Amino acid sequence: AVDRVGALTVPTTRDEDWRFTDISPLTKLSFQPVHDAAPIAPATIEQWAIAEAAARLVFIDGSYAPEHSFNHAGFTVENLAAGVTRHGAAVQAHLGRHAEFERNAFAALNTAFLHDGALIVVPRDMALAAPVHLLFIATRKLAASYPRCLVIAESGSAVTVIEDYVALENEAYFTNAVTEMALDGNAAVHHIRVQRDGAEAFHFANCAVSLAHASRYHSVSVALGARISRHNLGVLLAAEGAECSIDGLALIGGGQLADTHTLIDHALPQGKSRQLHKCIVDGAARAVFNGNIMVRAGAQRTDSSQSSRNLLLSAKARVDTKPQLEIFADDVKCAHGATVGQLDVDEVFYLKSRGLSDVAARNLLTYAFGAEVIERIPVASLRNRLEQAVMAQTQAAAPAAEGRS
Asked: Which of 53, 126, 223, 405 yields a CA-CA distance of 20 to 30 A from 359?
């Protein structure tokens, strides 16, 4: 990875995968890794606590904070730097094996700086209803952090993992995260990813998931923060009967840019995938979605669908969406589609005719548009918190929308 960092260059808009995402503001600043975690009061940590969590790992500016972490899950949930000594064979089989860094500068950079990280190993046939909370807190201006997560779900196991990025201040900092998940046969993972970084932050993330026979992966990703954010999610259905469901929501405004790239790779027969990605864009913000579903030769009886739905709340808001299918098998059922538009004037009129103000009508419709994704989060306290965040942002956007009506 260190060798690849030296060989690779920072992507620009001349690169096809980055042509809508200008990250030049990132290159104009100098970020430095933090080697000592800043002290944070327990009461500050509790504002992001998940009441249902059976385990929690806290990382402050990329450094593990054991004083704020706990594990009542009954299996391995610990800092990667310590866990590698106890789970050497499992870690060696998966760490750096799924998130490709040969051609990805940010994944290579994360791997080169690899030290602390989250390690979750769920034993065979163990199912945990309570979630595992991975909390990454940014506290320092111009700090660079490299969060790493490795989840190994053994055969027949089930777990819910919450990957949560938050900030104390709206300062410029750089988060470069990599997550790898390996699901053995008949395993099930619910993966909830929440990015609510500071308004001046830069957030880049790569997530790679490998599914074995009849395993099931469900992802809900919510992006609310950061000045520029990029999330690459790749799911490999590497065996027959694997299933995945990927839901995403980007809610941005001002001058934010949120970019999501996904690849669902059906490698073998009888795979099933569903994807819904939504963007709500206000102000002069820009959202990018590039979703690729690949059905390889021989992956017969694949059942896949993809939907990209986007809502523009201002005249300057912009969405670039590119859902795509690459199919090399002939016995498949695949569909995809994309919509970009504004609030339906007839729906606004209907609600106003029932006594709602124009602001309230627009607010309610915008909230409902985003809530469809939020409602798919299986953790009640986090779901309620995010619903309140979406409601607050739509309330802020509604008065501007009224002025343009």
From this structure: 223
